[in-house]
Design a protein that fits this description.
The structure is a homotrimer of 243-residue chains. With 243 residues, chain A is α+β, with helices and mostly antiparallel strands. The first copy, chain A, has two domains: 2-148, S-adenosyl-l-methionine hydroxide adenosyltransferase, N-terminal (Rossmann fold); 160-242, Beta Barrel (Elongation Factor Tu (Ef-tu), domain 3), CATH 2.40.30. The first copy, chain A, has helices spanning 14-24, 44-54, 97-102, 123-136, 227-231; strands at 2-6, 32-36, 63-67, 78-83, 86-91, 106-111, 145-148, 160-166, 172-177, 186-189, 192-194, 208-212, 217-222, 240-242. In chain A, strand 4 (78-83) and strand 5 (86-91) form a beta hairpin. In chain A, helix 1 (14-24) packs across helix 4. Chains in contact: A-B, A-C, B-C. Chain A binds chain B through residues 1, 3, 9-10, 31, 33-38, 50, 54, 57-59, 167-169, 198-202, 211-215, 224, and chain B through 9-17, 19-20, 23-24, 28, 41-42, 70-74, 119-122, 125-126. Chains A, B, C: Residues 161-239 form the S-adenosyl-l-methionine hydroxide adenosyltransferase C-terminal domain.
């Protein structure tokens, strides 16, 4: 499975061009999944924590084409990462750093190949897609890669006590993994202290709560309402556990 | 054909995860269509009238994965509906009730299977997708289902004299089917009374009219403008026929 | 490759219905690409310049289903265009006129076929999709077409010195092709005069610049910011070269 992850949005002509490039470079047999194209714009840090959570539900052998790349055209390296039998193709700007830090087994390569006609602003289409297409098709692009001793841009494996994503309902994902947090804990958000609930339906309409969302993160929600609007949350808003 | 219908939006990581689940559960050969993922949030009633209209243009044998599920995690049943040789998989909360009420031939089953690791908030991915994938692949999941005597949550077959959807142009779909309405009728919307027109191009720019839209519903539109903005329409706004 | 291009948006049920029609009419083997469905609403002129730029990166043999069609239901012709070994199916309202004017080799046909049950408002689904599906599948629909002596609605091959598209980052595409413009030129936009830069990363955060974007157009951007917001740009805003 080839999994696409970016901040390209889905309204703009970028995703279609990248998919056309994938098809041109041999990616026709493997199913493609649009996982998320609304990573907060330019935000490799939020994107790194979100990708680390989202990738857990994909099987070994999956290939991720992950592009949040505000430094495109600068000298930030382009890389391939193998982490716990999944492959990731993207920029070395932090986006892949959290999953790399948490991996049991890690190998990294720099993409040394530069295609003719490489644009200065769209390496997702011109550089990363051809490499990802070949890996997804089972053809290792050895001549395009040079093994490296890890990523340049490293991040800790720790959780991030911030809002990292807000969905269209207004639910706010944090970078905290729920597995290690007691359900007795309250979550401090601004002046509010929010209790846990197991499901939306367990809470009166309009009330805020936190819960373990479907990708294992602590999420702030309001039953049939918008937590982002009610609590004035944005990507980057700090949260704290109160136990 | 497997047809996806939800209020998940297309900006968020939900749709991609649900499609990955469909692929994991054997849905690789049948074409998948994203019919609509912007059903008004949490609104199973508007969603029910819209789905009843939209499904008419799909052929017998189509399988619909339909998820508008604000009660996820509560005890609302999960069901499979066969209505006039089309299949529907989703929650029993009204979403499937209008098409069921209008069907000539109806059979219903409860989904009794519960997968390991079922999340509390995302049955679209964990429960409904695996069932829909198998039905679309031609494998009836008999051991996962129990025949039932109809839906718990029933609705009338009647039309709904309200706005049920607003598209990005600002056109407002109502829950009224146009087939039985004379073109002489005017539509009362707030203080306005709106005449019918056959096509956009028959009306001066900026003027409001109603017409039979491409799925057979009465739709309020403004030629090259936004009916929703001009007439202050929202999902749920009442309309009335004046004959 | 079958390439879809429209102002249907991706939030609404139009695209799914059009794809279902493509599948019903035999388009199952050829990969489909959603290039753009956010052409500025009703704006065949901006859409024409954008399509002329975007199509350059697709290979000979590609088939474009291009629908921006505010005159649907009027007597505007429906056409097939072959321009430099690519095919285009859509309305003859200007949308295809810029690429036609720039083509080395051009052939045009009118679609004379009218299907049973043709809606008045959705020829993308009912008329254009069946024709495009057959062409993409390699079956020329000769009996549905009549050769014509060019398009009715013609436009010049010249560039357009206006903003023609704004992406979700706030970058503004113009209708100027960058290939013939010196990098010394400044771009006058309102009262501002904007210099060129090669890449985003070459410019301080918050500063406006123009550059040759990934489809060869002059684009106005702000590094990690929104040019549209900062410079109050909208589709149609005039720009001028200052050399």
């Amino acid at each position: 499975m080839l999994v696409l992850y970016s901040d390209f949005g889905i309204d703009d002509p970028y995703l279609g061009q990248m998919k056309a490039a994938l098809l041109r470079h041999g990616q026709r047999e493997v199913p493609m999944i649009d996982l998320l194209h609304r990573v907060p714009d330019f935000d490799a840090r939020a994107g790194a924590h979100l990708l680390a959570a989202l990738q857990t539900s994909f099987a070994a052998g999956s290939v991720f084409l992950a592009v949040v790349d505000p430094g495109v055209g600068s000298d930030r390296p382009a890389v391939v990462v193998e982490a716990d039998e999944k492959w990731y193709v993207g920029p070395d700007n932090g986006l892949l750093a959290v999953l790399a830090a948490r991996a049991q087994a890690l190998r990294t390569w720099r993409i040394t190949w530069r295609p003719d006609g490489l644009s200065t602003s769209f390496h997702g289409r011109d550089l990363f897609a051809p490499i990802a297409a070949r890996i997804a098709a089972g053809v290792w692009p050895a001549e395009a890669l040079a093994a490296s001793a890890g990523l340049d841009h490293r991040m800790a494996a720790d959780d991030l006590a911030e809002v990292i994503y807000i969905d269209h309902y207004g639910n706010a994902f944090t970078g905290l993994r729920a597995a290690n947090i007691t359900r007795e804990a309250r979550l401090a958000v601004g002046r509010a202290q929010i209790p846990a609930a197991r499901v939306f339906a367990a809470v009166p309409c309009g009330q805020a709560f936190w819960y373990e969302n479907s990708v294992g993160l602590v999420e702030i929600a309001v039953n049939r309402g918008s937590a982002a609007a009610d609590l004035r949350l944005a990507v980057g808003s700090p949260v704290a556990l109160v136990t």
